[in-house]
Amino acid sequence: MSTLRFAVIGAGFWAPFQLAAWRELEGAECVAVCDQVRSKAEALARQRGVPAVYEDPEELFRSERLDFVDIITDPRTHPSLVHQAAAHHVPVITQKPMAPSVAAAEQMLAACREAGVPLLVHENWRWQTALRHLRSVLADHRIGTPFRARIEMISGFPVFINQPYLKELEQFIVVDMGTHILDVARLLFGEADSVYCQTYRAHRDIKGEDVATVMMKMGGKTTVLCHMGFAGNFLEHDRFPETFAFVEGERGSVELGPDFWIRVTTEAGTHARRYPPPHYSWADPAYDVAHSSLVACNANLLQALRCEGPAETTGEDNLKTLRLVFAAYESAASGQVVRLPSDRP
Fold it and tell me: If residue 94 lies in a helix (H) or strand (E), which one and from where to where?
C-alpha cells in the first residue's frame, strides 16, 4: 500500500516526540502541523521537517488530502476536533483521555461511525515493554488463574512543570494517569464488575486530586488494587515513573519491580529477567519508558489504518476505560462501591 499522509493537530509538549515516533515507522508521512498558536506549529514543522503549517483546523481539512489526523491537544478540545475530522471523512487518532466526559466520547464515536471513519485512541501505556511481557506471563497461565493483583504508579516526577495546564484540571490524577493505569488493568484482567475509589490532594496549588486508590473486581474473579499519584518530592525526579505490579495466582505469583525486572515464582522456583525499554536517539532519557511506547502504539494503530490488522485501542474499546474512570469519580464522591452493568458495551 502507498504511504499514508497525516497531519498533527497540536504542537505542545508531547507533539515533537509523537512525530519522532511516527518517523520510526514506514508507511506514514506527516504533511502538516496545525496549532492555534502559529509560531508553535512553525517551530515544530521546522524541527521535524514538515512542509505545511496551519493555525485553523478547518483550513487544514479543506486544504490537505489526509489519510488520517493525529490530535495531540488538551482533552477538552478533542470533541470539536474529532467532529471536524469526521465531517471531512478523515480517520482520527486522538490522545488519551479521548474526551472530557463519557457523553462527549459517545458523541465522537457516533459522528465517526456516521462518517464511516475509524476513531482510534493513542493509549500508549499498555505498550510499555515490561508491561507487554507481564501480560504474556499471565496469558501463558504460568501462575494459574489470578485472584489478586496490585498495580502502582506513584511518583514525585515534576509533571506540573512540563505540563502546567494539569494544575487547572478540576479532575486530575484519575482522568489523566488513571486512564493509563485502569486501561492496563483491563488489558491484564478483563472488564471491571465493580469499582471503589478514594482520592486525595497533596499539592495545595492545584485544583484536582493528585492521589487516588482504586479497587476493582475484574473478570469476575480478580481483585485489583491500583495506586496512582504525583504526590510529592519523596521519590526520584530524574526519570519518568515506572509501573510496578504484583499478581497472585493459584499456582504462583509474578512481580514487575523497579528497573523493569519481572520475577515469576512457582513451585519450580523463582525466575527473574529484566525487560528495559528500547532507547531512541530523539527520546528524552528521563522519558524512555514512555517515549519508546509511542512507537509501539503508533505501529499498532498504523497497521489498522492500513487494513493490515486490528487496533487494540479503538474508540469503542477505550470508551470502556473512560467509563471506568468516571465510575471511579462517582465512587469517590459517594463513598460507595459502584457496580458496572454486565451488559455494558
Answer: strand 92-95
Report d(CA 124, CA 126) in Å as an integer.
6
Helix axes 102-115 and 315-334, enclosed angle (nearest 10): 170
Strands (E), 204-315: 211-218, 222-230, 244-249, 252-257, 261-266, 269-274
229: which strand partners? 154, 211
Q: What pairing do the DSSP bridges indicate for beta strands 252-257 and 211-218? A: unpaired
What does the pLDDT look like over 135-168, one tens digit per residue?
999 999 999 999 999 999 987 766 777 778 788 8
Measured from the Cβ of residue 63, the count of other Cβ atoms closer than 10 Å reads 13
Closest CA to 92 of 322, 309, 305: 305
User: Cell digits for 55?
Assistant: 493555525
Bridge-based pairing state of the strands 244-249 and 252-257: antiparallel
pTM of model > 0.85: yes
